[in-house]
Amino acid sequence: MNKLIQRRRATVALAMTLVVATLLAAGCGLLGGRKHEVIVASPNLPDNLVPILHQNDEAKMLSDLLYNSLAGFTGRRQSEIALELADAIEQNLEKKDSYKIRLKKDVAWHDGRPFDGLDVLYTWAAIQNPANDSPLRGRLGDIITELDTVGDVYTLHCAFRVAVAPDDALWLLSFKILPHMINGAEMPTNLVETDEGRAFGSNPVGTGSFRFVQRTSNELEISSINPDQAIQKVLFRLQRDPNLRTLNLIKNRVDVIFNVDPETYEQLDKKGLPHSTYAPKAFYALALNCSRGFTANETFRAALATGVNQVAIAAELFGEDGKDFSMLNAFPANDNPLYKRLPPTQAFDAEKAKTLVIKSGYNGEELELMVNEGMGSVGRVTGQRLVDQLKEIGVNAKLSVIGTAFQAKLVEGRYDMALVLEDGFGRKYDHYALYYSRGSRNISRIRNVQLDDVAEKWNNSIVMDIKFPLTQELNTILGRLNPYAYLFSSPQRVYYSKKLRNVTIIDEDALIKTLPLWNKG
Amino acid sequence: MQKKRIMTLLMLVGKALLKTVFLVLLSTWLTALVLGILPQRERSMDVQQQGQTVEQRSQTVMDRYGDWLVGLLHFDLGHSEHYFGDKVSKYVFSNLLLTFSLSLFSVIISAAFGVLLGVHSAIRSSWRIQPPPDAKREAGFNLFRYTLYVINAVPTYILGIMLLLIATTAPMGLLVMISMVLGSGIMMDFAQMSARLMEEEFQEPYVLNALGLGMKAGGALPRPGTVSWHAFRAASASLLPLIGSKVPFIMGNVLVIEMVFELPGLSEPLLGGLINQDLPLVLSVLLLAVLVVQVIAALTEVLDFVINPGKQFLI
Fold first, then answer.
1. Beta bridge mates, A419
2. Could you say which residues from 43 to 82 on chain A have a Cβ atom under 8 Å away from some Cβ of chain B?
3. CA A45: distance to chain centroid?
4. End-to-end CA distance of chain B
5. I want to staple A497 with a disulfide (CB 3.0 to 4.6 A). Which of A255, A260, A407, B287 is the partner?
């Protein structure tokens, strides 16, 4: 009997040991298989995989790997463009407003069909289709007057409304190209309202270095089309919590994280994790509600804008680099270097600000300065410094750090002043929407006919010879109306795993475009 | 008599069906109503939306709700409004499988450990079944029991984060189940329930009779052929339906813990759908959650009906 009991106990112990050993082995196995794989942790998954439609930032990043353009950003240097699907682009030297584009003949779509000029024409037609509400439609539609094949399907003729320099032409032709046929059937130009369009959105086909594999609720997977490439698989993994993203990078569960809170820089640097720095097309500004209270008064707004010392705040946040990121006018320099020549929209002058406060008839009423909790330490520090600076010029401001209600209050105009991060500008800063009376992003609620007129012309100008004088005029009007007190752009760090080499993340327009070159050699 | 039982069973099922339909309609309609009142996700100052009142915005959402209901009648959950091109069914069915599996396994494991703990506790405390243990062993057992109580008091979410920090390489599914078993509290619920039921059984006259006739009392745990085994079988009849009723409860906890471990369960479609105001996705997740809960409740009731023929059921 005792032997029986002993044997039973030994069997149970052995079984439990086997189970534990198996589980541990399975756990350890998680680490072994990630040599050729990169996991990008992001707070959102790519939402729309059709690049000519509205996309979130993650989808734009992904599109750089899935699709090619006639000419696209290389990602190796800031704003560097090179030919991709085009072999050569030749300007008509007489008229200078038209180009001949020769296409590469050895390019294939991910489904094997060869690429040709009909795909470019289809993409252009899809962009122009109003049903798609493409963000490219207005701007490109105004400048590109003709796009057609000449001679054969590998030669295109492109005409612009005005003479366009070759560099500007490349930029204008940097839209991603879509296939005009899928599974032997012509694609409709209306992508949002047709089954074929939706099916394409669910399973996109491009010519890029990676092909789409699958998307689930937590992950999106793409795989390389080149078997010799070091990185064979890229996973975009949804991780909303920034602290968990940081933890997972430290624990080697993910390989790249964006949107890193500056408060965690020190922790990540101590772990020896490498990083890259880039300047996104975004800026912080103090939005002033032009539709109610004291901030509706133009003189009072001028006082607030004049009393803000953005250079000092930027220096506190970013150290010596702070000066480079300060915005002395409404146009960040990382859009176009010419903008550095613009005079300040409203130069800092505390004494002048105090005088303007008195002149405006301000009665000392407490004004709320709201900051979004999601801005982290940058928001809190900036908000507090602004309150301090406004106090020095005689304005009584109270800081409110607000969570989910921030957006609602902003949209509904229930605020006095708000620290905002204006972003999502796409390839260029299209300020139009911020200032136009009916602009989709006019949170300051500024309404001015002259501003509308100049902003519209500015938005529709591509060529800098025409655009720069309009920029100067717009800057002057904004300096008079002051819907914002402009603060600074914020450099962003991208931290990545130690296993990655040759990483270049420098251009917001092509953040991970160089991924095929990572770990090469 | 048999006919009466069949009729009662059919009426139970019918009642469950009607209740399900009513709950689906009520919960989805209320959700759509609330989403319609909330401000739009986009920071939109579009002139058309500027002019829209809350009532008009709500009307637009109710129109979309109507479209979703019509699609539902054709067994089509529609397309996601956030993930362009993808059908909602792609995100919810496979995710439901994971959430449900985790919930079920967590309940089963919690029940197994809880019942063992409760039954052992009842046996130890019943002088009829075995003599009182020595003080040292009693202290050891109590320490173990109270440690479990303390761990159970820690919220599942916190437990999950602690495990994530400690066990870097362990499989996520395993960590989730450990968090659920230890942190959700149902293991101790089962322990207390089973202890109470066993103690009630030990008070029954047949236990004394069996012991008097020379049947073995049983060891630390019930073994076949012993008095404690018969008591355990009798107590199980009341325990099984209770175990089934805990699955919906634990699903709520699993939704939270999935976010900690970033598992592709129902939590992400629900949370993502709410953040992005993706109406078809949110409604579909809600629909499935209600269906699962109601199906389990119905199955539990049917099981109870089958196991306990003498029990009266309210229709």
1. A286, A371
2. 45, 47-50, 53
3. 14
4. 17
5. A255
Taking alpha carbons only, the member of A380, A372, A384 closest to residue A420 is A372
Could you give the angle at the alpha carbon of A293 between the alpha carbons of A291 and A295, nearest 5°? 70
Q: In this predicted model, what pLDDT tens digit does every residue of A305-345 receive, in sequence order?
A: 999 999 999 988 887 767 778 888 888 766 777 787 888 88
Say if CB A66 and CB A204 are below 8 A apart: yes
Query: Identity (one letter) of the amino acid at A322?
Result: G
Strand pairing class (A219-224; A210-215): antiparallel
Distance CA A500, CA A519 (A): 6
Q: Beta partners for A220?
A: A215, A236
Closest-CA distance, A180 to chain B, in angstroms, reads: 17
Chain-chain contact of A439 with B40 (C-beta, under 8 angstroms): no
Whether B85 sits inside 8 A of A407 (CB atoms) is: no
CA A119, A123, A129, A132: dihedral to nearest 10 degrees? Answer: 120
Q: Is the dihedral of CA A149, A151, A154, A155 positive or negative?
A: negative
Q: Which residue of B79, B86, B264 is in closest CB contact with A218?
A: B264
Strand locations in B2-48 (E): none
Residue B36 vs residues A178, A411, B46, B55: alpha-carbon distances, Å = 35, 16, 17, 8
Q: Which of A 218-247 lie inside 8 A of B, CB atoms? A: 218-219, 237-241, 244, 247
- Helical H runs in A294-448? 298-307, 310-318, 322-325, 350-359, 376-392, 405-411, 432-435
Closest residue on chain A to B44 (Cα):
A440
pLDDT higher than threshold 50 for residue B53: yes
pLDDT tens sequence across B79-102: 998 888 899 998 898 888 888 888
Dist. CA A254–CA A270, nearest whole Å: 18
| Predicted complex ipTM exceeds 0.90 | no
Cβ partners under 8 Å of residue B212, min gap 6: none
Q: Closest Cα partner for A390 from A425, A365, A412?
A: A365
Cβ(A493)–Cβ(A276) below 8 Å: yes
Residues of chain B contacting residue A203, judged by C-beta atoms under 8 Å apart: 85
Half-sphere exposure of B246 (CA within 13 A, CB side): 26
> What pLDDT digit, counting tens, does each position of A46-57 carry?
999 999 998 888
Rounded Cα–Cα distance for residues A69 and A86 (Å): 8
For residue range B6-49, list pLDDT tens digits in order: 888 888 889 889 999 999 999 999 999 888 877 665 544 443 44
pTM: 0.78
- What single string gives the DSSP state of each residue in A81-102? EEESSEEEEEE-TTTSSEEEEE
What are the two backbone dihedrals, phi and then psi, of residue A512, each rounded to the nearest 5 degrees?
-115, 25
**Which residues partner with A276 through β-bridges?**
A494
Over range B275-301, report the average pLDDT: 88
Provide DSSP, A9-63. Answer: HHHHHHHHHHHHHHHHHHHHHHHHT-TTEEEEEESS------TTS---HHHHHHH
